[in-house]
Amino acid sequence: MAGSVLAASLEAVLGDRGNANRVFEILELLAAKEEQDVLSASRTCRRLFAALLRRGELWVGDLPAQEDALSGDFSAAPFPSRELQRRYNDCVESMNELLGHESFQVKESGLCTLMKFVELEAECPLVAEKWKGSFAFPRHLLKVVVNGLIPIHEDASLLISRFQEYMEYDDVRYFVMKAVTESIGHVMQKIKEKPLPFYQQNVFSLISPINMPNKERDMVKFMVKQDDQEEWKVSRLQAHRQAFERMWLTFLKHQLPSGLYKKVLVILHDSILPHMNEPTLMIDFLTAAYGVGGAISLLALNGLFILIHQHNLEYPDFYKKLYSLLDPSIYHVKYRARFFHLADLFLSSSHLPAYLVAAFIKRLSRLALTAPPEALLMVIPFICNLFRRHPACKVLMHRPNGPQDLSEDPYIMEQEEPSESRALESSLWELQSLQNHYYPDVAQAAAILNQSLSEIEDDISGLLELSASELFDKEIKKTSAKVPLEFVQARGLFGKKNDILAEHFALD
Predict the structure, then answer these.
(1) Domains of the chain: which residue ranges?
(2) pLDDT tens digits for range 481-508
């Protein structure tokens, strides 16, 4: 029934502009309860207004107020043209509401309809003329789409992923970045620095996949085709980088939910910093992120490290902050692999002072006394690599008259300043004690300190993700030598046959 009404209304409006009021029959079905009716109405609206836009039958000037339109003078333009423009505005508003519909299919249909209108308004501008140096792009309509993609109280990540194909257009991407910046300033200003988890996550989902061009000649895909593309500001890479930088700085100046800090910091060095005009402007965000603690602090130091080495940022407390992150949890947390991968990068320079490296070696060794075997198998080669890079620290390995236990150790574990920890006066009695560890592989790894270290560093990449379950699987797969026995070997535990101990640890 709805299909026949929609078809008749569509044919009537396209056939005679005097039937403009029949657009209401289509728009009313956009609020129907049945999903299929809404989808049909959405598709009909797309066909109707796409045809009218192509035919240039929509009003191209300022519209009079609705009250004036009922009794005014319409000599300047036919009434139906004005009326169709109002119905087009009503359609856009209804499509924007559909972006918040409970059905994803309806949301997708509304999004595709609005983006079709964006494309057609770009092709057939709803303006009377273009001034020299000014190019028509339906910025207002695209802003409506962007605001619908980043609602405040619900997750829109699925719809945002559907929108990503439009971000391949260079001009669409540029105006999306501008619209997002405006939205953040408008929304976040109202809530007085309190996080909005859904809104901020939606913004991140929209802007994090942005694929910025590296060179101006790579910008060749535009939704709006211009006669003189080179004169258009949007075709300039510098304008894109400015919009990109301002968007991210606006987003990151507000407090983020803890989960978002991690997501931003993980992509910071690859997807954000290389496309900024002034990457050092990120210093405020990174400093604030470091204060959050845990894995976020570590990831923030990674960003600071990049600014120091690649952009000549002066940050004298970098290694002090890294040193302060060394606590018992580093051997137990799920981000252990990430921590030691970055720590290995930070301590890779051979120009670091010996006292600093010695402090890291001592604190890692002291914390190793309570570490699980899988962590010890990784940190011992890690420490050995530090000795290879910094031979001046080998005095910790070869100090026969040095401290033998905690009571004699001059190293000050609680000292926050590495230079005052007295690490170089100490010895590695902690690792020596691990030579008596209950797990044989750990004892064997610690015994390397009794030998001369080779010059080639150990590859620890395969050890960073080592887990307790992997060690257990390795042990139960070991085969033991068969030896003659003078007694009948027990099968099972407490007389139970075929249990796991009998299966894996039987000698015959």
Answers:
(1) 1-129, 132-255, 316-477, 478-508
(2) 777 767 666 665 555 556 665 555 554 4
